[in-house]
Amino acid sequence: xxxxxxxxxxxxxxxxxxxxxxxxxxLGVPKSVVPKDGFVPTAAVAVSVAEAVLIPVYGKQxxxxxxxxxxxxxxxxxxxxxxxxxxPPESPCPGGTAQVKISKRTGEILFMTHYQ
Length: 116
Fold this sequence. Notes:
By secondary structure, this protein is an alpha+beta fold. It folds into two domains: 31 residues; 72 residues, no CATH class. The longest helix is centred in the N-terminal third of the chain and has 19 residues. It is elongated. About 11% of the residues have low confidence.
């Protein structure tokens, strides 16, 4: 009779091997499509992604108050920042805005914060 620990260990190794083979493109598993312009091809998409990740953290009202968001592309990374609304516009005002850095190619969130 096989000891239970050996059985569990052997089963875990077998499952790990099966999952690793299932992920191997050489064995017929299709590779993911990557759009030629990346998953985040435009500034408008970058702003939408940024708002989607900011709202759960900072709240819908806070993020809405920072519209319009601006997106600048540099080195394949979108830098999305909110707008600080001061009255009058040229006067200094307290507060800060959100910033999100997003990979144009993969859509990965590389950085996110909200300045004070």
